[in-house]
Amino acid sequence: MDLHTHTIASGHAYSTLQENIAAARERGLKFLGLSEHGPAVDGGPSRLYFQNYKIIPREYGDMRLLCGVEANITDYEGHLDLDALTLSRLDYCIASMHTLIVTPGSARENTRAAVLAMENPYVKILGHPDDSRYPMDYEELVREAAGLKVALEVNNSSLHPLSSRQGARENIRRMLEACLRHRASVILGTDSHICQSVGDFTQADALLREVDFPRELIINTDPARIGEVVNIL
Length: 233
Hints:
The protein is an alpha/beta fold and 233 residues long. The chain is built from 7 helices and 7 strands; from the N terminus they run αβαββαβαβαβαβα. The protein has helices at 17-26, 47-51, 84-88, 107-118, 138-148, 168-182, 202-210, and strands at 31-37, 59-60, 63-72, 93-96, 125-126, 151-155, 186-189. Strands 1, 2, 3, 4, 5, 6 and 7 form a 7-stranded mixed beta sheet that branches. Helix 5 (138-148) packs across helix 6.
């Protein structure tokens, strides 16, 4: 499964939904997630876009399309840029922090924002908690994620040599070490902004193998675990 992908609807990605679907099927994915940025991102879709997901076909051979959002955490209180009613109608929600939306704070402030966002009942995945511009208390973050049953993302895009995120490799390793202590699950996401990246977890998979992270804590390895990260299936 790859639940973190974007299309031209996000305003700064380069492939259509049909191109992403074709790429996902070619890679043999069982589930493809459409997770456009929330409306706070410049050029991104409005609330109406997410409310109209009902018109999109979901079955493509043996692959299922899930329609969600990468919602923006907008402040240190963990608020998101989509309302509860809209979120309740989506298949799933990733919550992420972006420098265009919320100014990075202290480790305490950033961790508080992430934890409060994870307490939202519709949030099932915390997106790319790996950027040194947003320092985190990984022990607290992972402990809370485990208790709330929210998956922490290992973001393949963060590990790209040209990524704007800083310190991702070291931060992900610290997060994974805490996940082992608290038995918290992770989910790999490509954060694709072009179809060639859909389903390509090369960098993330290499890091997980490097630290010998247990397969049973990786949601992507078992299609039956999809229910852990979606609200509607």
